[in-house]
Amino acid sequence: MTVTNVSAYDQGKEALEGLTTDDQLGLLWFVYTKLGKSITPAAPGASGSEIAQGLFNQVKELPHEQQLQVMREIVEKANTQLSRQYGSLSPETKLAFWYFLAQGME
Description:
Elements: H1 8-17, H2 21-35, H3 47-60, H4 64-75, H5 81-87, H6 91-105
Helix pairs in contact: 3-6, 4-5
């Protein structure tokens, strides 16, 4: 008998990846609206925070429909300049980027 130990993280990741791109973005927005006020962002001046802010600023300058398209491309790991920049970030910096995006949508 083979026992498979699948962590809650792996189960959650698999469930998230099973959603459509727009549903994934919607879930991220829902989580932010429920938890966003309780999240403590990185200290001002932290290098990861500055990098995330720089990428966010590039996205912020785009028209709204293009901003949504960039978010879709990031989720889909498309081979675009902004998606590649995002892909090179540390997990913490990626989280900061999504935090800045959510704040910008308020």
